[in-house]
Amino acid sequence: MMASPLDAQTLRGAVDWAIATRRSVRAYLPRPVPKEEVEAILSIARYSASGMNMQPWHVHVLTGTAKARLSAAIAALDDDPGRSGELLEPYDYYPREWFSPYLERRRKVGWDLYGLLGIAKGDKQRMHLQHGRNYRFFDAPVGLFFTVDRKLEEGSLLDYGMFLQSVMVAARGRNLHTCPQAAFLKFHRQIADLLDIPAGEMLVCGMSLGYADASSVENSLVTEREPVSAFTTFHDTSKETTA
């Protein structure tokens, strides 16, 4: 077992900081991220838990012209409602019909972001342009795509969530930020063609990776989180007494 490089209090603070400061960043500096840094992040994330050590993740890393070429192709489709409107996602990430409390949370984060950007309700053109920034990876220098074998079941998506979290937390440990992106899902066939992803692999999501642009107003958005008491029930039998 690997020994801790820090004392217990410092270690706890570092881990808590990395988790608590992880958020979806939507504007990045043009500063490059070395390939060695990306490899180091993935090397740490590979220790994520997975059922029976299946390790179901496959990662595609895009930089430079490869990223620009894919972004341009997806943006062209996104700007053509007749074509993009017919595209289907490989799986349902969101509920088909939103309901409380998830509907309210979704609306709040959307309008909080648009409010910061000065996008008025009903301004469909500016909403489309902002959403389209997903396909440029919000100008991050690194774009990632994650795929999984189509023959695997839902449990592997649970494993994948732990892997994605590990990627994002490891990035924070290197002063990098990320944005996991389901927006790419409906373009999964085009992405597979452009990256020569085998037909047996399904797109899980995309992700932006880079150094946050602190001057961009959208990066001041901090989403609200429910307190522990709102989602936790403690079952304590230690106080039971016998007659």
TrEMBL record:
Its cofactor is FMN. It comes from the Bacteria. One of its GO terms (molecular function) is oxidoreductase activity. InterPro entries: Nitroreductase, Nitroreductase-like. The keyword Cell division does not apply. Pfam families: Nitroreductase. Coiled coil: none annotated. The keyword Flavoprotein applies. Keywords: Flavoprotein, FMN, Oxidoreductase. CDD domains: PnbA_NfnB-like. Residues 19-211 form the Nitroreductase domain. Belongs to the nitroreductase family. This is Dihydropteridine reductase.
